[in-house]
User: Fold this.
Amino acid sequence: MSVETQKETLGFQTEVKQLLHLMIHSLYSNKEIFLRELISNASDAVDKLRFEALSKPELLEGGAELKIRVSFDKDAKTVTLEDNGIGMNREDVITHLGTIAKSGTADFMKNLTGDQKKDSHLIGQFGVGFYSAFIVADQVEVFSRRAGLPASEGVHWSSKGEGEFEVATIDKAERGTRIVLHLKSGEDEFADGWRLRNIIKKYSDHIALPIELPKEAAAAEGEEKPALEWETVNRASALWTRPRTEIKDEEYQEFYKHIAHDFENPLSWSHNKVEGKLEYSSLLYVPARAPFDLYQREAPKGLKLYVQRVFVMDQAESFLPLYLRFIKGVVDSNDLSLNVSREILQKDPIIDSMKSALTKRVLDMLEKLAKNEPEQYKGFWKNFGQVMKEGPAEDFANKEKIAGLLRFASTQGDDGEQNVSLADYLARAKEGQDKIYFLTGESYAQVKNSPHLEVFRKKGIEVLLLTDRIDEWLMSYLNEFDGKSFVDVARGDLDLGNLDSEEDKKAAEEVAKTKEGLVERIKTALGESVSEVRVSHRLTDSPAILAIGEQDLGLQMRQILEASGQKVPDSKPIFEFNPTHPLIEKLDGEQSEERFGDLSHILFDQAALAAGDSLKDPAAYVRRLNKLLVELSV
Assistant:
């Protein structure tokens, strides 16, 4: 190797320093996992070269036989992993090996707790598999050259994992990357052919290119050492092309960890081969936990796309809708051309057919998980529930199917857990109930104690309690489920239909007639603050509430739009009062119009607070309340 030039010492990004600290203190329960991670990275590098070489065959540099080689030196206590993939230039090396090159690093820092067991679960969410080398090595060297660059533009990267790394320019005749691990004291077990062979068979048998290990051959006459021969130790066939009956669960799980760069097993998977008008294979996985960038819509997402087993694209977004962006997997088509681009993917009718079929397959997989593994589905919902709630707006064709997968809190529970399905709700519905009742709000405590629920508690009717910021928007796209329409209990003039007896309805009408004068007085007192004043049928304990007009924005949506700086349409609430409440009876008997006005405004402001709204004029509310308290104390 020629002399190193342009040598410089650089510091790791702060997040990497902390990550290395976790690695060096052996947070993985299984140290041998380092080899799986390095082989996965090498496989990705080979895939990228294979695809780029379709349009630029010169990148192969005359060596089209793509492979990964793993070797060891017992005397030097080293393990070496080499691939002849795409390789890296100097800038790539500094970027990929000196920083966590993925969004959300601030979240990574924030979530580090100091608890080694908890922190270990964070590793892998940032594509940081390379750093696992420091589990077993106290020094790591990387020699790389990007395909297409001259031999003189090779790069040597070296670090002892102590906060700094060195980068130098070298001559490297072969394209690709060679990683040399200098094993720590006590890690000699990995400088052993039998041990390495077993690790590769266990974790990387599914890799769709040869992984070779050296085997000793008999020495030729006159030679001191036997000639070095290589043998392939993995199947070297794409896992998704094999029959399902031949694949063990462990193989599916390891393949998921390879493509998702995750350290946990998936919750579920679905492996299918479609033949007929379209021919393609798919292997789809539901992860056990969400990545930090799940809600960053510009974050990388999508399936790995292969065409006739040739890698084409890492994040093919066109095969699943955005609300299923957490799904990982592979799709391999016989019907697409190898020169596919993102533009073609978006316009090709074949893609539309595949997207429709793959979406249904994912939803079927989730239905099966919910039915057969309810505890597992609870975990899924905690991680991905808010993303699934984007579905009804985005995927009209599967709206009913998605609705069946949604989970909500309800008045039946007391912990705020979202574990009630719409099917559960309807199974418990009252006889004659033809509506699904719900209430949205900022927090579980606020909606659970809302005055809007009083009549429902009295009649024993379950109400869904929706407190995620996306919920009001979601319900604007969900009109019905299983033939039953949704009703917001805080909106419009509540009609309980068959759940109200004729006697109750008649009595309510008679009370409303007797209070027509009070309605007019309150309307005059509140003036422009309200759109309407009426006698309430919802209240049993509270004096008053504010209802929303049928076509008006709800409070939750209004607050979201205002917070984002958007103009919100003007709307005024409906003031409803409970005619049997002592405060309302006292108000009805009040002779002083000034005092009547103060009391009406106090009731209006209290109703706004109970609904989770902020007061337009808090000082006026305090002034009126203090005035009332002084009068009462005299």
